[in-house]
């Protein structure tokens, strides 16, 4: 006589979660952009995961933020290397260890050299507190104020061998108020910049990008 074995009730269909894109963040200071990325990456649907934070500054406040979030950190201080070329190679190696899909320069205050650019070409993203190509360099907010523009903003762009010259991925405008000084304007720009960076990194992770000359299109 056939025996009827009890059947285990079928559970809900399983969902296969695609692997998230691995992101390494480069910082030099307080890490406000890093903190915004860490807040976003806890959501699996975001598509990206910060797996490492690398700094040129052992006193960078962002290192503590990363460690509190359980993210591995590395410090590659220029003073620990005999020359610039050795430091460039050290930076490239420190980031390579994390096997990133994308490298995000978020408040990183040094120019990345040829060894780094060659290893991660087309996968390095930077933020800048002005609407490039206007006001590149370390004093974008100050320079925009001094020029008297009524609208400035922030830019997320790919990194190339120049200073803030890489192809532009996304931009957001910020109006300049009559009573703005460098500090007040920069604070408003940073608020917009954080949101834009989080959006762009998530879209890069989920969809990638296409470049035609200097034109960039998120996938």
Describe the overall structure.
The chain has six helices and nine strands; from the N terminus they run βαβαβαβαβαββαββ. The longest helix is centred in the last third of the chain and has 26 residues, at 182-207. α1 runs parallel beside α6 (182-207). The protein has one domain (21-218): Rossmann fold (3-Layer(aba) Sandwich), CATH 3.40.50.170. It has helices at 32-41, 61-68, 84-96, 114-119, 140-147, 182-207, and strands spanning 21-27, 48-55, 72-75, 102-105, 124-128, 151-158, 168-175, 209-212, 215-218. It is α/β, with parallel strands linked by helices. It starts with 20 loop residues before the first strand and ends with a strand. The strands form two sheets. The chain has a seven-stranded mixed β-sheet, with helices on both faces. A two-stranded antiparallel ribbon has the order 8-9.
Summarize the structure.
The chain is α/β, with parallel strands linked by helices and 219 residues long.
Form type:
globular
Percentage beta strand: 15-25%
CATH class: Alpha Beta
Question: Strands across the major sheet, in which order?
Answer: 3-2-1-4-5-6-7
CATH architectural category: 3-Layer(aba) Sandwich
What percent of residues adopt helix (DSSP H or I)? 25-40%
Please provide the count of β strands: 9
Number of contiguous helices: 6
Helix-strand makeup class: alpha/beta
Biggest beta sheet attributes: 7 strands, mixed
What is the gyration radius calculated from CA atoms? 21 Å
Distance between the termini: 61 Å
Give me the CATH fold name: Rossmann fold
Average pLDDT: 92
CATH superfamily: Formyl transferase, N-terminal domain
N-to-C SSE series?
Answer: EHEHEHEHEHEEHEE
Low-confidence residue ranges: 1-17
Could you say how many structural domains there are in total? 1
């Amino acid at each position: 006589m056939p025996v009827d074995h009890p059947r285990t009730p079928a559970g809900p269909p399983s969902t296969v979660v695609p692997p998230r894109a691995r992101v390494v963040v480069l910082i030099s200071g307080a890490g406000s952009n890093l903190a915004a990325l860490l807040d976003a990456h806890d959501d699996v649907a975001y598509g990206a995961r910060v797996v490492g934070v690398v700094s040129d500054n052992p006193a960078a406040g962002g290192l503590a933020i990363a460690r509190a979030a359980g993210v591995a950190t590395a410090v590659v201080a220029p003073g620990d290397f005999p020359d610039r070329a050795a430091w460039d190679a050290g930076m490239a190696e420190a980031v390579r260890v994390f096997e990133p899909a994308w490298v995000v320069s978020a408040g990183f205050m040094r120019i990345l050299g040829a060894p780094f650019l060659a290893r991660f070409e087309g996968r390095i993203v930077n933020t800048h507190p002005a609407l490039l190509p206007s006001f590149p360099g370390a004093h974008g907010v100050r320079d925009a104020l001094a020029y008297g523009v009524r609208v400035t903003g922030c830019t997320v762009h790919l990194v190339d061998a120049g200073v803030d010259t890489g192809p532009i991925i996304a931009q957001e405008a910020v109006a300049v108020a009559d009573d703005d000084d460098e500090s007040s304007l920069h604070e408003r720009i940073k608020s917009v910049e954080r949101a834009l960076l989080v959006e762009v990194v998530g879209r890069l992770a989920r969809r990638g990008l296409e470049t035609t000359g200097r034109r960039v299109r998120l996938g």
